[in-house]
Amino acid sequence: MVLSAVVVASALKGAIGLVGTGLWLVPLLIAGLSYYRYDQLDPESRPIDRRPLHPEYDFIVIGGGSAGAVVASRLSEIKEWKVLLLEAGPDENEITDVPSLAAYLQLTKLDWKYKTEPTGKSCLAMINGRCNWPRGKVLGGSSTLNYMLYVRGNRQDYDHWEALGNNGWGYDQALYYFKKSEDNRNPYLGKSPYHATGGYLTVQESPWRTPLVVAFVQAGVELGYENRDINGEYQTGFMIAQGTIRRGGRCSTAKAFLRPVRLRDNLHTAMNAHVTKILIEPVSRRAVGVEFYRDGRRQIVRARKEVILSAGAINSPQLLMLSGVGPKDHLRHVGIPVLKDAPVGDNLQDHVGMAGLTFLVDKPVAIVQDRFQAAPVTMNYVANGRGPMTTLGGVEGYAFINTKYANESGLYPDIQVHMAPASLSSDAGVQVRRILGITDEVYDAVFRPITNRDAWTLMPLLLRPKSRGTVRLRSSNPFHGPIVDANYFDEPEDIAKLVEGTKIAVRISEAKVFKQFGSRLHRLKIPGCRHLKFASDAYWECHIRHITMTIYHPVGTAKMGPPDDPGAVVDDRLRVYGIHGLRVIDASIMPTICSGNTNAPVIMIGEKGADLIKEDWLEPPRR
Q1: 580 is a catalytic site residue
Q2: Which residues are recorded as binding FAD (predicted)?
Q3: Which of 181, 336, 337, 524 is surrounded by the most beta carbons within 10 Å?
């Protein structure tokens, strides 16, 4: 199927705008689009960008991301309910659909482009000491921007939430909602009691992999860990990564939950609709509507029943504070009338990790950009849904391991390791260094000398940090990005655990199975750490503080907790304390961060949150 010249020209313009300096990708994309018009054959076509909107709906969902798309889809199952989904960004496009291009979506119009505040304790190798914090500004949210890894966390995470006083949030209930979403297409998991088929969300392994990830899993076995389903009965172990992909393409929550229901009359979706305020009646303290800007014009839509805030762990607290719900002293400082004094924006947590731990190999087994030939790679992807373009943003495997600080049971690992068959310089410094924000001095000293060399990477990350950060308003202007203080390594134990995780990662690389590739540690020192002995604890700590990496998992800024918890913003039914008709359903509500990539847990939260709403509005009132 050949596209018209107009469509090809449009696609070329869009591709150039998105990938910036990564122009080597354009021939791949245009060739693919010319050969195969995916949208015309996709059984679920794109959601409808509704115009005009009704003046009133039963439910208004703010944010069409990992949770919001789920909530809107599930609420619209009740035919009598009119549901409006407001998303600040546009729809997905051809590039978002390609799993291997995840890094090329960051710092584009599909990204909120947040940065952390400099603290002098982390991100030292980044420009101005600030780490980039990408967040999806697109239908599907960060599920359209992320690396698609499907990880649920540890059963003890959810049992801990329940023990904190959050009834109904234990592992058994969480598992029910994980399975409700899931359509797992890996045959070896077909009969597992921990997985399901037939749900909206497709989960499977990438159909393409390098020999390095097979060696990675075998190395784990050498070290005494099991090759196991880390989403099953036990988490500790090594696994080839599973991801949210379908037919070789990304399966975002927009594709999974919105496209199949796009023709429901009671579900309206408005894109490029930037919400600026939740309208709350000051006397009754009830959320009655939403203010947003679309097409350069201020608009208001009313909610008959509830407003549901699903804008994510950065934007949800920002919107609550802009609407008068937040720390009273801070709100007064920026000139916002206080409707409810609440610890909004506190309790910020993230999976901080270490980037740049690189291993060189002598065989052509890694992902090296210049090696791939455009035509055959693209044809294999668009025709068969196979080949290197199906890799999960470059991540092929993960492990959950125990340091000396971990729980003695061995069942509650404290470090996760991501494995990628590439390095920070595998793309010749075009994009990866840019999205991390690494300075020229560090890149030129450590990574430029191995440009286009075969290499692989391990990225250890801390599963349950003790440090807590904050989100605060920069001003009362809703178009000013908030102040994000990640506060990495405020607690000394956090970096001590990560140093131990790094040493275990090096031991993984030294396993016998890697000898066949001539694998060895890349030993060029980071400029700011040259005074330290390479591979000593002090050196690894210096490396971590310099090449600090977010794994894109901010949570916790509208904490769920019982009424006597002074840090709680929402109750265990996700209702905002002190404000009627307003819930938060997204990563913000996590009291403590789950042990693993957060996308699957946020989808679970969306599923459970939608059911809580149905229970409250459809079941007889509780006595």
Answers
A1: no
A2: 138, 275
A3: 181
